Amino acid sequence: MYDVIIAGAGTAGLTAAIYVQRAGKKALVLDGAGYGGQIINTPEVENYPGIPKIGGFEFATGLLEQAKALGAVVDFEEVLGIESVEGKEGTAPKEQTDAAQENPADKIVRTATHCYRTHAVILATGLTRRKLGLPGEDQLLGKGLSYCATCDGAFYRKKTVAVNGGGNTAVEDAVFLAGLCEKVYLIHRRDRFRADEAEVRKLQGLSNVELVFNSTVSGWRTGENGKLCSVQVTDRLTGEHQELPVSGLFVAIGQVPAGRNFDDVVAADENGYILAGEDCRTSAPGIFAAGDCRTKKIRQLVTAASDGAVAGMAACSYADLFTRN
Ligand code: NAP
Q1: DSSP of 265-304, one letter per residue?
Q2: Separation of 247 CA from ligand 1 center, angstroms?
Q3: Which atom of ligand 1 is nearest to the CA of 216?
Q4: pLDDT tens-digit readout, 215-272
Q5: Which residue from 128, 147, 169, 301 has its CB within 8 A of the most atoms of ligand 1, so it is best to mutate?
Q6: pLDDT tens for residues 60-102?
Q7: Which amino acids are annotated catalytic?
Q8: Angle at which helices 301-324 and 11-22 pack, to 10 degrees?
Q9: Where does residue 234 fall: left (phi above 0), alpha (psi -120 to 50 degrees), or beta otherwise?
């Protein structure tokens, strides 16, 4: 029996575990994809208060070790379902009312191999990279197509690659790859970046980065070995196509909610984000949502950590209702 079960071992989930353990309660963190969430693939973090510069891997590993040292249990199993002990799956109330708070119900959290009973659940399942949606995209993965420059960049040392996107991830990826590769095309569908000015400034002076603005990736060609040899880009203003000879394409066009959003137990919006405000309360009593998977305006490392603290403490208050009743 755990007081709080947390789905997701990213920044929000592990921060929640720290707060639950420090409140004297028992936390179990479950994540089928390993630990660290998205930050583990970020080359450098420069905007976390109090830490001027840190690698994403180092940050995530430190967080994992901190949560475990405080007694949190972390298991690499995916949460497949959540059921209310007193109700049936899919019948959780859609309003988190005070009456529901007074009559709390335990939950069963299911994985492929276990059924865990808990007082409260925190969903911190994060986001995953958006795909281009082009035919053959899945087949090209590992053969020139990647969604993670930090993970796969080293395979393209001294080669020519393209990055697609205009946000912080794409610009950071382009800067990172410029240090490894002979040439980097940065393809963006507009002529202005969405990325922070501080990130965009890092592109200046990089003579091996060529900006391809107002353009989208519309296709690609592969060689006899099935590996990528060029990408086709289409100018959105003129409709003209051009072919860029590249052996790698790094897609960084934003994110979508990762895996399950548990919409059989909590309400989600039309894009799959779990409906929850700054208090991290969802439509289901005793189920909280923290970090990038919930509806919010600003998705940053620091707001994920903040959500972890809020959700962790709210889950502990909910768990306290069981000892009072
Ligand atoms: P993002 O900020 O949502 O940017 C996605 C980019 O991809 C945008 O430039 C967008 O174009 C473009 N795009 C979206 N759909 C597209 C499509 N179908 N085809 C072509 N282009 C498309 O995503 P992100 O860069 O992954 O960042 C996600 C969040 O993490 C953001 O909040 C970001 O600030 C944060 N982040 C922060 C850091 C940091 O602070 N160091 C690092 C990485 C990420 P438009 O601009 O035209 O919409």
Answers
A1: TS-B-TTS-B---TT-B-SSTTEEE-GGGBS-S---HHHH
A2: 23
A3: 20
A4: 999 999 999 999 999 999 999 999 999 999 999 999 999 999 987 779 899 999 998 9
A5: 169
A6: 999 999 999 999 999 999 999 999 886 444 333 444 445 555 5
A7: 148, 151-152
A8: 40
A9: beta
